[in-house]
What does this fold into?
Amino acid sequence: MKVEFAPLSVPLRRRLQTASVVQWVFSFLGLAQCCAAVFIALFFTRFWLVSALYAAWWFIDREKPSKGGRRIHAVRNSIVWRYMRDYFPVTLVKTAELDPRQNYLMGFHPHGVMAAGAFLNFCTEASGWFRVPFFRDYLMSGGLVSSDKESASYVLQKPEGGNVLTIIVGGAQEALDARPGSCTLLLKNRKGFVRLAIEHGTPLVPIFSFGENDLFEQVRNPKGSWLRQLQHRLQQIMGISLPLFHARGIFQYSFGLLPYRRPICTVVGKPIPVQRKHRPSEEEVDEVHQKYLNELFKLFEEHKAKHNIPEDRHLEFI
It folds into this structure.
């Protein structure tokens, strides 16, 4: 196999962009494991008190990820994220103004392999990683919160408004279909976020991130294959999916785990008004869910030509 190496004359700015993505990929793939290992290892050194004190803090602070988290402005505004934004680059397009006095529930599509667009534009992708020592505080510093219903309700019921909760509806399972050209969304039977919006009377906002699925190649895993079955089984056990992805490296462009430099354009749709009801019926949830599907489909169709998507390619809801 011929390897295409990066030229030595790459500008410093581009090297810093690559470095920012390297640390992000490491955070995604290995930082949680490293944090857990350090936490345990410290107990067997003269610095055992650090882990002991943190364990006490962890217990006292255990509900924080479900109670709005803990943002640190310096982390959210770090220059690292601006370099990472410019690596692809990532852009955000609004199609309607949002009332700053209103809370919103945004549905983000598609998940992609690592949800790069969601992370950079909204910084709200979260999971069971909040159980990992040290790593949980790193996640909350950027504005991430736990993904359970209790946490979502806490954000949406704030009376002062001005809060946006972004949910990657397809979740980890959708990542298994993330490959260039894919327009498949795991959404047909995902209705919990709709029920949540109705219970709080929160407008729903569809979002489609063009280019999200183009960042990585993925090993072929059609439904019914042994690989897909193994991935589903591991997801049930671990709570996260394990797509076998690859793209480019740090100093060469032929193979590796860094995403390709391909543009991401995240388009935010118009809010869908939702009538508040404490216990909506299945029929009411289905009605709002269908409205959401229609608006998301319309959003995709209106903007796909700008992103070189063929006219005969449409969203597929499964």
